[in-house]
Amino acid sequence: MSAFAKPNLAAAGAALMLCSLGSRALSQTSAPAENGVTALPQIEVVAPRRAQPPRRPRARVATGERRETPAVPPQTEAEVIAGKNEKFDEARHNIFAPIGANPFEFNHQAIEALPQGTNTTLDKVLLQAPGVSQDSAASGELHVRNEHANLQYRINGIALPDGVGGFGQIFDTALIGNVSLITGALPAQFGLRTAGVVDIQTRTGAFNNSGSAGVYGGSRQTVTPSLEYGGTAGQTQYFFTGRYFGSALGLENPTPAPNAIHDNTQQGKGFAYLSTIIDDSTRLSFIAGTATSQYQIPNNPGQTPQFTAFGVSNFNSALLNENQFEQNQFGVLALQKSINGFDLQLSAFSRYSVIHFMPDVIGDLVFNGVASDVYRRSVANGVQGDGSYRLTDAHTLRAGFQVTGEQSQVTNSSIVLPVDAMGNPVDAPFGIVDSSAKLGWLFSTYIQDEWKITSNLTLNSGLRFDQMVQYVNANQFSPRINLTWKPFDGTTIHAGYARNFTPPQQVLAAPANLALVQNTTQQPAVPLNDPVLPERSNVFNVGVDQKIHAIPGLEAGIDGYYKSARDLLDDGQFGAAYVLTAFNYDRAQNVGVELKSSYTNGNFRVYANLALAKQIATQVVSNQFLFDPDELAYIASHYIYTDHAQLLTASAGASYLWNGTRFSASMIYGSGLRSGFANTDHVPSYTQVNLGLSREYLFPGWTKPTTLRFDVVNVFDSIYEIRNGSGIGVFAPQFGPRRGFYFGISQKL
Known about the structure:
By secondary structure, this protein is mainly beta. The chain folds into 2 domains: about 5-45, no CATH class; about 80-749, Maltoporin, Chain A, CATH 2.40.170.20. The chain is built from 6 helices and 36 strands. It has a 22-stranded antiparallel barrel. Strand 4 (about 130-135) and strand 5 (about 140-145) form a beta hairpin. It is globular, with a radius of gyration of 34 Å. Residues about 1-55 and about 55-65 have low confidence and may be disordered.
């Protein structure tokens, strides 16, 4: 039928609508086509037998009121500003998208659902991720994929510089909106610390002029009051948290007893975030944090004195009085710009970090032959710029740079004993000072291209360059490539390769002046201290994430990795001070597989993770004086396990919200870290289970709810060793926490 036939058919349809049910049928025939053109149809319309009466008009009643569609309530100023900030947050996520890597995420609700909720520290939260094992948990140490440290902490995409201690206990989890542990073959934008990236995004729903105040505490004289508040003023959002922590269990107990001796701690931490919209394409934000901690070093009674000092040869080790002070402060000022497909974040950052260990002079001399007052300070400042530009629908370019200058100071003021010609110590203590200061620099830059080859296949390739100018000068070009494929709905396959360059932390690489300790009780048996080198490695990673459609809410994944390294970096505690010293293994291999799973159904969630891993290394090539001659010779001819290697690591948990009450449980398992001569043994396996119960109440006449909670840590009172005092770089035993009961109350403001 030609286009000209359509209006005639419409007219016929209109005529049919006017006919009554008793009308004669419509007849329609078509004339034959002529000259290849279809003729218009012939339509005959038969009039109805009886005419329809005219319709009676409806009367309209005037009420004097105008009827209008209800209007949508106008947005408040805070809601408008929140919407603008969400767009900036999305743009920032586009800058730092970890394409092809392996992120494991916790949002704020998932943290609140853990036993202890936001009263738990960040390192305890990360222990629930696959492949993360604990070490000195009280000081925030943990191992990702059997690596020692080598973790990078980012807040809103900005990499925070290294200090003299980890970030594991600096951040209050109340400030976290989302935290991702990113592992695998990292894209080019992630460098320097490459075992994992702890990427923290600050809370976005905390700016509605509200907050909470609470207190939490229980066993071991633990008490921790906290306060948080956030709001919106004009174009500015703000949020701050503050927390005090006091306990009689500061560091791990060196004995299996429920209570430690001389282990009190007092800690305070604070955090502030401000963000203001300058215009529709520009945002300025400021982030600052501070943490101050005082620790008593716990005592291990029953130790045997080894030396005589100041006429004292018998000393009760339960009466030692060693203490440590730590302070960390950081600040970040970031300018974000988004316009015409181009997103940019330029930031300036600063970090101040101090550790000061104060010995028990007589006691340390009697037991160790040396009493060292250890002071370490780091002041780091720098700038970082990152940007992304959508070149075409298929290509997004990302590039950036980072420059960091660090002024570090390491001072060991030691009291030692001289030795005679036969090597016997003489009771004539004297002091020596070994001090090192350094202004070091790190420079990094990268470029990468995200290429969407098809709608379900993405290739992310890039190149980064890193230069260090510290105690050692070195650099490296590092290619990176990642492939992400989604062959089916709910299936994601990722694979990647990364060449990594990891400089040592400057304060851990400070050289020791061995000439100062000759003919003293601190003189090492191996007089070698080659400088600490940067680590160079190749990482291969492949994994699959799958949503199980047959069981809605069920997800599972598997990830495998292999790493080969030259000059593998490792750290150890080689003295009484809770500070670390770095060294290198010439060659190392790290291989492992991780399995993860989770199931969510309404208010019920359960998860389970399992990791199997192995890290081995050979030949110490720096700071050899830290080792005994026999151990050093054995490592030179054998591949040994690194001290932080653990064969099996697992975590699991569940939470259920029922009728306003939340029940939660978590579990960690470890087959045991290494111990013994050259790490040839390991401590026994362990399992720790925690339980939590919380409920929100709205008391009569109150406008905001109150939350009560009760938690049990180590429900079965499992007695287990994290360390047994042996192994490379292990100074003293450390036991996991005994069973503890904790109560909390918090009030929304």
